Backbone:
RNA sequence: GGUCCCAUAGUUCAAUGGAUAGAAUGUCAGAUUCCGGUUCUGAUGAUAUGGGUUCGAAUCCCGUUGGGACCA
C-alpha cells in the first residue's frame, strides 16, 4: 500500500473516531505537499468541516494529532488553513528508498496469461506516400501507450491497419504506368515509399494541368473534374483491381511491396514495431458482408438508389453512409471488417485506436455501429484522439511542399547529434559502431521526448531547431543526467570505493535528498495515472522533474567525495535509483538512455 | 447550416476543483577548488472576455470573441 493510501485510510478513520461520521473516500484528499510548503503529504480538510463542525485550523489539529498517534512515522505536522501538512521521518524515507532500490520491477505491474488484453492500433498509413511528421506523432504515441499499458499489467497487441487499396494508390499506379518508364527503387536508388509518393505527386501535377486546360476551353471547375480523362483512367484501374484483373493486381502488388519495404526501414529507424498487421484489401469485403448482414437484421436500411445507411439520429448524430449505391465500400465499411477480423483473431478486452482528432466524428459513429452489430466492446472502444502537429511557420501543406518527411527529419537529427557529441569527445574508446548507436539514441530521444511531453490531445508546434537544442526541457538533458549518474559509478570503481548497495538508517536527509526520495516514491502513481489517462506526457513531465531535482542534489551534495561513509552509501543508492527510474521512464516513452554521451 | 475541439508569460509547454498559476526558452545579473559547465541560483513576465455554480475555478456550466476540425 502506498503512503498516500495509508494516510487516507487513517484520515477516514480519524473522522469516524473523532466526529462519529463515516465519510465518502472521495472527500478525503491526500496529495504531495507543494514544494514551497513544509511537509511531505497534505490532507485537505476543507471538505471535512461539515463533519467536524469546527474551524479548519481546529479540524486540522484534531486529525493531525490522531494521525500522529496512529502512525509513528509521522515526525511532525503543521496546519495552515484547511491544509494539514504531514512530515514523515527521515528513517521512513530511507526505508522507502531501500525498498525501491531492492525491487527491480518497482512501479510496474507484472503481466500474466490472465491479464486483460488490450489491442492498440496505431500508424495506419496510406500506401501512396511516405510517412511524415504527423505520422511520427501517431507512431510514437501508439508505441509509448503500448509500453505503458504493458507496464500497468495488460497483455498488449500492437496492430497496424494499412490502407493499401482505393483510388489513391491507383493514381500512383497510373502515373507509374504512363510516365514511369519502368522505374524501380533499385534502378533509381530511391526508397520505395518515396518513389511511389513521387508518382502520386506526378499524377496530381498532370491532373491539375489537364483541369486547367479544360477550364480554359470554357468548362466550369465541376465540369472539368467530371470530364478529366486522367481521373477516369484512375477509376478504371480501381474497377479493374476490384474485378481482380491480373495485370492490375500484379502492378498493385509490386508497388505496394516497394512501399512496405520503405515503411519497414522507417519503422525500424523510429524504433517501433507491430505484432499483427491488417490490410484493408483483405478487410473491406468482410466489412461489406457485415453491413449486408446488418441490413438483414434490420439495424441498417437501404435507400432507393441502393446505398446502405445507418440511422443514428436517436443517438444525437445523423444518418451515415455504409455502402455506396454501386456497392463499393467507404472507410466505415473497412473499419467494420477490420474490427470483425480482430475480434475473431484475439480475445480483446479493450480496443484502442490511435487516430487524429479530425476523425472524432468517424469514431463516434464506428462505436455505435459496432455496438449495433453486436460487438461487446463496440460501445467502449477508445478513440485515442490526438492533435495535429504544426510547424513554427504554420501548418504543413503538401501543396506548398512544407511537409516534413519522417526519414529526412530523423537523418537530420542524427547528424546534429553526431556533430554535438563529437565536439564533447566523451566517447573515446567507443568503436564507430558503438558511437553511432549513441548518436542515434540521442537523436531519437530528443525527437520522442519533444513530441511526447506535450498533452496528446492538443495541437502542438514542432520546432526542429528547438528539438535538437540539447538544453532545457529536452530528451538529451535527461539522457545527460543518466550518463552522468553512470559516470559516477565508473569513477567509484576506479577509486576503489566499495558500495554495499543500500542506505543505512539513522541519517539526516537534507532538503534536496528528501525531495528526491519523495519524487522517486511517486513513480508508481505516475505510471498508473499515465495509463488511466492514456498520456505519455505525464511520464515525460515527471521524468523531467526528477532529472531537475537530481541535478540540484548533485550540485549541492558531494557523493564520491563525501567522507562520511553511511552518507555516501545513501547518496550512491539515491543515484542508482534515479538512474533506474530515468531509464524505465524513457523506456515507457519508447526511448533509450546511453551510459556515455 | 449542424456537430466537436482549442484559447495560460514575447515564444513553446505544465497545473486529479485546492495554498502565492509552475517550467523551459528569451533577456538581465550571479555561482562553482569538486564526482561530466548540456549544471546551479536570482530577476523579468500570463489564465481571451462577461456572467453563474461553491468554503475554494485556469479547470465545471451558460453567453461573447478568436482559432481549428468534421458532417452534408
Residues:
Amino acid at each position: 500500500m502506498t503512503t498516500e493510501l495509508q494516510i487516507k485510510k487513517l484520515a477516514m478513520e480519524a473522522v469516524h473516531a473523532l466526529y462519529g461520521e463515516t465519510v465518502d473516500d472521495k472527500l478525503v484528499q491526500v496529495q504531495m505537499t507543494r514544494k514551497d510548503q513544509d511537509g511531505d503529504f497534505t490532507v485537505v480538510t476543507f471538505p471535512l468541516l461539515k463533519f467536524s463542525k469546527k474551524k479548519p485550523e481546529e479540524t486540522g489539529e484534531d486529525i493531525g494529532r490522531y494521525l500522529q498517534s496512529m502512525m509513528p512515522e509521522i515526525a511532525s505536522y503543521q496546519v495552515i488553513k484547511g491544509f494539514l501538512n504531514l512530515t514523515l521521518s527521515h528513517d521512513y524515507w530511507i526505508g522507502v528508498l531501500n525498498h525501491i532500490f531492492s525491487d527491480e520491477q518497482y512501479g510496474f505491474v507484472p503481466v500474466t496469461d490472465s491479464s486483460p488484453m488490450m489491442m492498440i492500433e496505431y500508424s495506419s498509413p496510406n500506401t501512396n506516400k511516405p510517412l511524415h511528421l504527423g505520422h511520427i506523432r501517431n507512431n510514437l504515441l501508439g508505441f509509448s501507450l503500448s509500453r505503458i499499458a504493458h507496464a500497468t499489467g495488460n497483455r498488449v497487441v500492437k496492430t497496424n491497419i494499412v490502407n493499401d487499396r482505393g483510388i489513391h494508390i491507383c493514381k500512383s499506379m497510373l502515373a507509374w504506368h504512363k510516365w514511369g518508364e519502368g522505374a524501380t527503387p533499385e534502378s533509381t536508388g530511391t526508397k520505395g515509399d518515396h518513389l511511389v509518393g513521387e508518382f502520386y505527386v506526378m499524377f496530381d501535377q498532370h491532373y491539375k494541368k489537364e483541369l486547367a486546360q479544360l477550364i480554359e476551353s470554357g468548362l466550369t471547375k465541376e465540369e472539368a473534374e467530371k470530364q478529366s480523362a486522367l481521373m477516369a483512367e484512375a477509376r478504371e484501374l480501381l474497377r479493374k483491381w476490384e474485378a481482380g484483373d491480373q495485370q492490375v493486381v500484379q502492378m498493385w502488388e509490386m508497388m505496394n511491396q516497394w512501399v512496405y519495404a520503405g515503411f519497414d526501414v522507417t519503422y525500424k529507424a523510429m524504433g517501433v514495431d507491430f505484432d499483427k498487421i491488417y490490410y484493408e484489401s483483405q478487410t473491406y469485403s468482410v466489412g461489406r458482408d457485415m453491413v449486408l448482414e446488418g441490413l438483414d437484421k434490420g439495424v441498417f436500411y437501404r435507400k432507393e438508389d441502393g446505398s446502405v445507411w445507418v440511422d443514428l439520429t436517436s443517438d444525437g448524430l445523423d444518418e451515415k453512409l455504409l455502402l455506396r449505391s454501386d456497392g463499393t465500400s467507404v472507410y466505415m465499411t473497412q473499419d467494420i471488417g477490420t474490427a470483425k477480423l480482430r475480434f475473431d483473431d484475439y480475445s480483446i478486452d479493450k480496443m484502442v485506436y490511435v487516430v487524429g482528432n479530425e476523425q472524432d466524428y468517424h469514431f463516434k459513429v464506428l462505436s455505435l455501429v459496432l455496438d449495433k452489430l453486436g460487438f461487446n466492446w463496440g460501445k467502449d472502444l477508445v478513440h485515442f484522439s490526438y492533435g495535429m502537429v504544426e510547424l513554427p511557420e504554420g501548418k504543413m501543406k503538401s501543396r506548398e511542399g512544407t511537409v516534413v518527411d519522417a526519414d529526412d527529419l530523423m537523418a537530420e537529427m542524427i547528424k546534429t547529434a553526431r556533430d554535438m557529441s563529437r565536439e564533447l569527445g566523451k566517447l573515446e574508446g567507443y568503436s564507430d559502431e558503438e558511437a553511432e548507436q549513441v548518436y542515434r539514441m540521442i537523436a531519437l530521444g530528443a525527437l520522442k521526448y519533444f513530441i511526447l511531453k506535450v498533452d496528446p490531445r492538443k495541437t502542438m508546434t514542432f520546432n526542429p531547431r528547438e528539438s535538437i537544442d540539447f538544453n532545457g526541457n529536452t530528451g538529451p538533458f535527461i539522457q545527460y543526467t543518466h550518463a552522468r549518474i553512470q559516470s559516477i559509478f565508473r569513477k567509484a570503481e576506479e577509486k576503489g570505493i566499495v558500495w554495499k548497495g543500500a542506505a543505512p538508517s539513522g541519517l539526516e536527509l537534507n532538503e534536496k535528498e528528501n525531495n528526491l526520495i519523495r519524487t522517486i516514491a511517486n513513480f508508481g502513481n505516475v505510471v498508473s495515472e499515465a495509463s488511466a489517462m492514456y498520456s505519455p506526457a505525464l511520464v515525460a513531465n515527471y521524468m523531467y522533474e526528477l532529472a531537475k531535482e537530481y541535478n540540484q542534489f548533485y550540485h549541492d551534495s558531494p557523493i564520491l567525495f563525501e567522507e562520511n561513509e553511511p552518507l555516501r552509501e545513501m547518496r550512491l543508492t539515491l543515484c542508482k535509483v534515479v538512474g533506474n527510474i530515468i531509464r524505465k521512464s524513457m523506456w515507457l516513452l519508447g526511448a533509450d538512455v546511453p551510459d556515455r554521451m
Notes: The longest helix of chain A spans residues 192-216.
